[in-house]
Structure formats: C-alpha cells, structure tokens
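[job 4471] stage=fold_predict status=RUNNING
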Amino acid sequence: NLTAIDQTTDTPTNNFCTANPLAINSAVGTLSEGNLQIVGNTTLNYYGFVSSTIAMSSGKWYAEFKKGTSGTNSCDIGITPTPMCDGSAASEYLGSSGTPGSYSYDGNNGNIVNGGSSTSYGNSYTTNDIIGVALDLTNSKLYVSKNGTWQNSADPSAGTGGHSITAVSSTVNNIYFFAFGDNAGTSGSGYATVMANFGNPTFTGTDQSDGNSRGSFEYAPPSGYLSLCTANL
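[job 4471] inference complete, writing structure tokens
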C-alpha cells in the first residue's frame, strides 16, 4: 500500500541527504516524511531552521524545496556553515545576524538575507511553489529558482546572475549545509511547513536527474550541478 513517492531509492552504495534530526530543537519544529519535511512549532512559533545531514566543501550542488500547505509564507530556504540552531532568540532565523554566514531566500518578499541584511533578488513564494537552490562553491555563488524560473535573470550553467557568498574556505568549518525552516518568530504570527528534495523526493516530480543520472527532481538541475548523495561526493 505504498505509493511510488513513499519508496526510497537509497541503496547500500548510495545514500541521499536528508534533514539532520540531531540539528533541530523541538521548539523550532518537528521532522517527518523520512526527515525530509519540517513543520514549524504551532505553539511557540520560534524562529529557526534545520540543516542537511551532508555538508558540501567543494563543487556544485542542487536541491529543491516545496512550500507546504500549512502555515504562513514566513519561509526561509538557503545555506548555512553551521548545522545547529536552537531558535530561542529572535535573531536566529536563517540569514540573520544570529546565524553568522548563513543565507536565505525569504518567502515573504523574495529577498536574499545574510547577516540580517536583506537584498532584493527575486519573487516571493507561497504554498506549493517549488524552490530550486543551486550552490556553486567553485565560484562562491548562490542561485535560486521559483517553479523552474531562475530568479534575478540568472543562469547557473553560465555562471551569471548569482548572489555572491562567502568563499567556503573562509567559513568557520570550510563547509556549507543546505538549510530550510521559517522566520515566523515568537510573535505568534504563524509557522511554515517545508519539504526538501535532495534527489530522493518526498513530493512528486517529473523525475529529472543530474548529470550523473542520479536523483529525481521536478526541474532539471543546471549543467554541472549534482544531487547531494554519497555517490556524488
């Protein structure tokens, strides 16, 4: 009685990334769907996010995230150099001054946020929108797409229109993680539900794989960008 989307493609020789259950405070939210979905805490409405189990130290990587039907548009999707956020402070959303070195694509306005500063970049997004994130650690660029359209007229394959990020060699641990969560905060204004796809989806797609014929995505990864799995490391 399992649908196709509930069947994992992990094997003993290739494991796909998930969200890290050891890197989330229950006050921020809970994980489900094989640790590929975060549901923000509906009672406490803490700021916060969860990071990926696999970190990236070089190369070019692609992942997709879908805004769920629950909660508000207070959604953050992006990257972080540190895996843990306790969410107890108002400054601990992804891209805030309380999470140094992280970058987020803000669902409320489509801006890229880093160090608490917001830069105009793309369009806002809402329920059922699919956000693609292409991370280029070779050239220190971050790209985001909304439903297949790269924001800021960017082209990750050509290396144009990306948002500049701190070089991975200059981060605290010389790595980045994918990260996702919400910034609803402690005001009781809402919470976010976000689903992640690192190549082994929890939501249906069109089965677009990377250049190594690995992963299953709604939209084709840009040329040269790979799904985050052990076989691609």
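[job 4471] summary: The first strand starts at residue 29 and ends at 32.
[job 4471] exit 0
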